[in-house]
Design brief:
Layout: H1 4-17, H2 26-56, E1 62-65, H3 73-84, E2 87-89, E3 94-97, E4 101-109, E5 115-121, E6 129-137, E7 144-148, E8 162-166, H4 172-188, H5 201-218, H6 220-233, H7 248-255
Parallel strand pairs: 7-8
Antiparallel strand pairs: 1-3, 2-4, 3-4, 4-5, 5-6, 6-7
Length: 256
């Protein structure tokens, strides 16, 4: 949605505040205009959020191999750090077309149960954002665990069976350690991760997107309102170790 609409609505509201009808006192008129302005702005924000989620959670997301020249230096450094941690590259650099284009490189632990991705997102406005994560799929593909260093992935509601933990600004080595600790704890609760093959990275990635999209399509308004609230308040329900998170016991019971 064009940003200028928000500006136009705000200008109209300020203009209207100075033109109270003779039958209404100025303070009351300002309150009325302010309430109408808030309502219109909220509807515009809700619509923009829904449109953004539709683009992000596309059912036909394109993942196109591109040359190494598309890999930025920060992203290249991250890929080297992942390799140093013992993971092997599962994909070439991929241009992933969602709400904003991203360059992503996938990794899988050889004969292991951990995969990961390093990626660079170029927003429509502002500097590129480079980040990374680790993830595992549970036996029977009944769910997954994702560990990341930023709040971004926690803006959306979790899909059924999807567990997440966030360690703000943790480096890749620390993040991987925390991910393994969570897997070990889940194992004691009867939830085990399955072995991942190098050639299934894209399939696993697409499956996660499809599950997220299905959950979004089933509750579009709830997803949008949650995204707005968490973005404004910076609320992150998945901060810290998995075993210490609120509601984790019930989430684990649903997986066993």
């Amino acid at each position: 949605m064009p940003r200028f609409l928000f500006v136009i609505v705000a200008l109209v509201a300020f203009w209207a505040m100075g033109r109270a009808p003779a039958s209404v006192s100025r303070p009351v008129w300002i309150i009325i205009v302010a309430l109408v302005w808030f309502g219109v702005m909220f509807v515009l924000l809700l619509r923009a959020t829904l449109e953004s989620l539709e683009r992000t959670l596309r059912g036909d997301v394109e993942m196109t191999p591109v040359g190494e020249e598309r890999v930025s230096e920060p992203l290249r450094e991250l890929t080297e750090r992942y390799t140093a941690l013992g993971l092997i590259r599962a994909t070439p650099p991929l241009a992933v077309a969602m709400s904003n284009e991203a360059i992503l490189v996938g990794f899988v632990e050889r004969d292991g149960d951990v995969a990961g991705s390093t990626f660079c997102i170029q927003p429509a406005v502002g500097a590129a954002v480079t980040s990374y994560d680790f993830f595992s799929r549970f036996e029977g593909d009944q769910g997954a665990l994702t560990t990341s260093p930023s709040r971004g992935g926690s803006v959306l509601r979790s899909t059924p069976g999807a567990l997440r933990q966030v360690f703000l600004d943790a480096d890749p080595a620390t993040l991987l350690l925390r991910h393994r600790e969570a897997l070990a704890w889940l194992g004691t609760q009867g939830v085990r991760a399955r072995t991942l093959r190098v050639d299934e990275f894209e399939t696993v990635f697409r499956r996660a997107l499809a599950q997220q999209r299905a959950a979004f399509r089933a509750a579009r308004l709830g997803y949008a309102l949650t995204a707005i609230w968490r973005t404004i308040t910076k609320a992150t329900p998945n901060i810290g170790p998995l075993r210490e998170q609120r509601g984790i016991a019930a989430a684990v019971r649903r997986l066993t």
